[in-house]
Amino acid sequence: MNNQSAHDLFIPLDTHLTNKNQPKYEVLYEHIKEAICHGRLKRNDKLPSSRYLSQQMGISRNSVIAAFDLLIEEGFAESRQGAGTFVAGIIELKPLLGEVKQNHLSNSVVRISEVAQRIQTIDDQSSTKPGGLQETTQSLFLPAQPAISDFPLKEWHAATARSLRDQNAYSEQPAMGAQLLRQQISEHLLITRGVKCCVDQVMITTGSQQALAIALNLLVTQNETVMLEETGYPGIDGVLTSIGAKQIALPTDEYGLCFDADNAIAQQAHTLILTPSRSFPLGQTLSLKRRLAILDWAYETQSWVIEDDYDSEFVFNGHSISALQGLDTGSRVIYTGTFSRTMFPGIRLGYMVLPEALIDLFKKYKRFVDGGLSGPQQIAMGLFMKEGGYNRHLRRMRKLYKIRKASLDHLMQQSFPDFTLVPSSGGMHSVYLLNASYCDQRICEKANANGLDIRALSAYQRDILHRPVRSGLILGYAGTPVEKMPAGVNKLQKIIKSLSKNI
Questions:
Q1: Domain HTH gntR-type: where (predicted)?
Q2: What is the pTM of this model?
Q3: Fewer Cβ in 10 A, N or C end of the chain?
Q4: 3-state secondary structure (DSSP) of residue 227
């Protein structure tokens, strides 16, 4: 594309491009990214100067620079010294160029399991199963524990009180969930995570674990191979075992999951589970090149990708990387999230964004497995989001968790100079790698018996028979006040010294 035609893509930001809740730099970023993904801007095309775009589109030059920085960070553009900003040399854009029509899947490409086939033969009758309550506790250094003492209880109580005055809360809730909450989630995900969906695609669950269980039960057949990251949440393994699936753990590095579509494993499997925004628990971000390769594989092999976006709300520096689902033009990504980390564990609310071809099947299945969730709880959460309480809470927690992370990392560096901090720009925990002289599981066993609640990195590693075991400690900082950290780190130091003497 010549320079003039590239300039013609940029017009003043009109009403069809803007959203009053979306910063101007994000609007420009999305506009340029869409042009690249659909081939209107091609590899090595030069983008107009920031001064030109500022004048042409009626936004500040700082907004243009911020948009360029984000495009460069995500791999869509590159800066060439003395020459300007250019569209990056991305070869793997095939999944984004419209070759696969969005949301147009024939029945022949919708792979469902034997469980799903049995579900489709059952008469559409409702059934309910009571769910249990999970206690919330405040433990020192417990990963995934939010700052309960800093939760805005007054705002939440007010939203709960209003939900109890809503007569709709006392009616049986739709299988997909309360309309108000689903609408708020779809709007929130679009603005904050780049997830493209309508309200009909959002299903409310008791958390990301239930979402995962539903998806795997309906899409994976017994003895079928499922790919996942070599280090991750053990709850996934439990679901895979329960359905009789074969799991293959793929290695990871600083760029996230190491994925090779030509590998025999990738050709055999038809389901991939991953945490692309922040791998658990190491916090790696999947590169753009690998994201595109995974989508290409999913389209070519008619496979499913389950994206767990468990704590992407907590990014302390810069802009969070957009969800993988936002790049999916072929409706192969199932997106899951939870409120248990951002709100409080006892809320038991999560969500799943489904490709349109799966909505009816998943809706029908959910009627039989739980019969619907609490109406007042869902409506309260919807009101809390609609009235701005949720976004205000997230902003406060980002600031608080950033301070707590810095404090914990500083204390750990002082006390354990031979530990290696795994770099991370967000989340709710820090990971410290240990050398061979330490056993992370022995440390955690004794530490947790003495009032700490830390986790061993090796306990999250899969396929330890074929790969070296990585030893490390996972310490949560989100729910631990700064003033309690020195005593906790000091206790950990004494425990490790006592274990070292016994070696």
A1: 22-90
A2: 0.81
A3: C
A4: strand
